[in-house]
Amino acid sequence: MAVQITEFDYGSSISYICKMLGHPTSPDPAGSTDSAVQQMGVALNAALGELLTMHEWQDLIRVGTISVGADFVGQKEKAFAFPPDFYRFIDQTQWGQQSMLPAMGPVSPQAWMTFTVRTSPAITLYWQVRHDKLMVLNPPFPGPVDFNFMYLSRAQVIDQDDSDLFKNLAVKNGDRFLLDGYMVLLLGRARYLEWKGFDAGAATRDFLAVFNSRAGSEKGAPILSLSRQFGFPYISVQHSLPDTGYGH
Fold first, then answer.
1. Which residue, among 219, 205, 185, 211, has the nearest Cα to 6 in the 3D structure?
2. Which of 33, 154, 193, 240 is surrounded by the fewest CB atoms within 10 Å?
3. Long-range CB contacts for residues 100-105, cutoff 8 Å, separation at least 24
4. Which residues contact 75 (CB under 8 A, 6 or more apart)?
5. What is the DSSP letter of 25?
6. What is the DSSP letter of 187?
């Protein structure tokens, strides 16, 4: 059986929206001087940013590692940079490599101050997110340890000329979306109609039908336990669950 699948890239998505709305298409959608076509491109990129906040898309989940270590003995806390494409943590995926224990966090401000004033030996890593950086309490010294985690990436676009280059905005006709292109263009069309002051009700319903189908099919499987007892192989509630709230 022969199969041919057409994927929507940035240029073809703009052209498709033009055809859906009865607007003249351009041979170079990304470089068009037509203000309406330009606005459709902006709407597609806005759709990418909006979709990022709506679901933990498996296509956008990445694994990160930060080497955590103090600069001197007794350093109370230290900030570490996230990967450049970092958007937010996947909850309860933070682990200390050497201790093989969950990293405790995000620690509440009240608990953080308690740990800072009443110094005690740390059996795992304690963390917060401040100023878009990972803040670690009592980082180890002298040897650093690995802080492993999973996160949602802002890099939703693959460059048309460099398949190893991932970015957060589409600017070239051949730039490809990591998320389903049809879903992206449907939301882009809805946003474009809203911006122009047209009725976007039907377009929004079209998008929601596809979104609910895509998001509903991405279901995480339960953690498999090799023990004879049923349940999740958490070490303890105290050290496996976040101190409060959710990841950044």
1. 185
2. 33
3. 101/235, 101/239, 102/235, 102/239, 102/240, 103/127, 103/147, 103/149, 104/239, 104/242, 104/243, 105/242, 105/243
4. 138, 139, 141
5. P
6. H
Can you tell me the distance from the alpha carbon of 170 to that of 140, in angstroms, rounded to the nearest whole number?
A: 41
| Residues of the chain above pLDDT 70, percent | 88
Reduce the DSSP state of residue 153 to 3 states and report it.
strand
| Residue 150 DSSP SS3 | strand
**Secondary structure of residue 197 in the 3-state scheme:** coil
Tell me the residue length of the chain. 248
Q: How far is CA 235 from the centre of its chain?
A: 27
* H/E segment holding residue 190: helix 181-196
Q: Where are the domains of the chain?
A: 10-56+179-217, 58-153
Mean pLDDT of 173-182: 96
Give the pLDDT mean for 8-14.
97
CB 116 within 8 A of CB 136: no
CB 15 within 8 A of CB 35: no
- Share of residues in the chain with pLDDT > 90 (%): 69
* 243 pLDDT above the threshold of 90: no
Q: Is there a contact between 243 and 102 (Cβ–Cβ < 8 Å)?
A: no
